Amino acid sequence: VGDSKSFDREVESVCPFCGVGCQLSFKIKDEKIAWVDGVEGPANENRLCVKGRFGFDYIHHPHRLTKPLIRREDAPAKGLNVDPANLMTHFREASWDEALDAAAKGLKGRGTEIAGFGSAKCSNEEAYLFQKLIRQGFGHNNVDHCTRLCHASSVAALLENVGSGAVTATFNEIENADVAIVIGANPTENHPVAATYFKQFAKRGGKLIIMDPRGTGMKRHASHMLQFRPGTDVAMLNAIMNVIVEEKLYDEQYIAAFTENWAAMKDHLADFTPEKMEPLCGVKADVLRDVARTFAGARAAMIFWGMGVSQHIHGTDNSRCLISLALMTGQVGRPGAGLHPLRGQNNVQGASDAGLIPMFLPDYQSVEDDGVRSAFTEVWGSGDFSNKRGLTVVEIMDAIHADQIKGMYILGENPAMSDPDAEHARDALAKLDCLVVQDIFLTETANFADVVLPSSAWPEKTGTVTNTNRQVQMGRPAVPPPGDAKEDWWITTELAKRLGLNWSYTHPKQVFAEMALNMPSMNNITWERLEKTAVTYPSLTPDDPGQPIVFSDGFPRPDGRARFTPASVIAPAEVPDQEYPMILTTGRQLEHWHTGSMTRRASVLDWAEPEANASLHPQTLRKLGVRPGDMIALETRRGRIEIMARADRAVATDMVFLPFAYVEAAANILTNPKLDPYGKIPEFKFSACRVSALSSD
Ligand code: SF4
Question: What is the pTM (predicted TM-score) of this model?
Fold first, then answer.
């Protein structure tokens, strides 16, 4: 670290962590990232959080993969047993040709026996190529990525009811709002730079309504804090909408002009009075009434939500309620108004837009539509592929156990840590007869691989990404990849050639140009434009910087109308009982990113938050006879972990909060794989568990 003159060069790019998509400048000294500063990006205006500023030395970590690896014939049985120190007991180094040939040999010609997980950490072009490889190379749609573990239910509800899976307004629009709801999200930890805009909004008098079973950092800035019982979102939101209907606070003109199914919605809500819902959701009836009046009385209001909403078996219903609340009050399509699911990974919006999902081709065009498929096969110069929706993340693991899937290509995903019921997922990975993993570290998933392909970290590659705001931004390489590691687009292209596909890309800009042919969202957006500036899609002309607010004059649905879809109360899949009396919920921490493969190798972040921990209310700890720092055992019907207890008054007395970044106490050994029927997202936010003290001797 030194003053700016002591750096060799500076490269402007985008942060690789969360969906806020902060623009930054890498300062390079001796081919290492020595420092990072925020720059004037549309989402961050120079700001960065601790991950964006200090979380980069993982790319120089000695664990980086620098050579392709092939599993040795005399390797021990597959398991979570590869230590970087004994890597060569399990694998041997190989040339790129040998490794790619081995990968292709294991996968080629096996049709529906193969599935692929791509990554929301890669560029739009890499996501596009990955889904194309599975569809063109194997003839089906068994391709998915971590959206299935994060906002798939929100996207399902948005597509169903407003006709588009992306946000209707950027989060920065909060500066034009006077009321905002933040529900099931913890932006101070998970979208920290977005949180700064939310706090400024509250500081200048905006009414910030926080709804969360866990008291979050935003609580201090809130006009209303609704700490509702976990899993009762629908009851609480229906009660708020019931008040809006009963007191005729809805926007009749907007409803008549822009929506359908209002009569059914009104009828449905009649039974959800605040008095009836109070015992269920734990929020006082008068508070529900006050929130309803505050939101409905707003000049302009926004709704933000996170995975506390989406990661339930009723995640789609939760999002349907939020959409209905915005529609009945006319809070869409105006400055300061809108629906905004805060997207998690840096490029989960872009990867989903690029078709890295089993039911849609790029731009959410259905695989079941013959015309859509033929538009793609025409561009791809190949024959048709299946018109059936493919399997999703958790379904693919089940299909391995059922002997239907026998080989996988996994790029940058870590299901051995990120899938619910992780032991079930690990057993599935061990069962595969060909697993090709492409990553920057030997992740827990790569422990099970037959072929490991070393790839580039984000600051080593060229490509575009799309943030939670629909802003498409250019990522530029700051340093070269280590050793023989390569950019992901190159690796996927070389594998495709060996699978017999006619690919000849030599630069990601060729991929971008091909994507744009069948993606109306990319109209007027070119690689050359993105090299100069970020563009928010949709962009209406070649000079339009893009539209921060959409749906001002109707929705991309039949007759231009959004839809009210009523939602009923459904209990969580696993309700606490005598055997498992507590509620387990999981999430992220400020310092650590997802399964920890990057941030636990970033020295400052690992220093700040080095150990696995579970948060419980101090009263709960006292009842258990446990002090903060003591070890406890957590058990669910799926498994048991031992972990250090942390006292946290923000957690309700019947709850445990567990971050999922720590392999030594992996949260997902415990979580419930039951799925939301629409989004196919597992219920990470609610499992029945029991807690016990571990004796210190
Ligand atoms: Fe990176 Fe998100 Fe932090 Fe911005 S808020 S610096 S995108 S982790």
Answer: 0.96
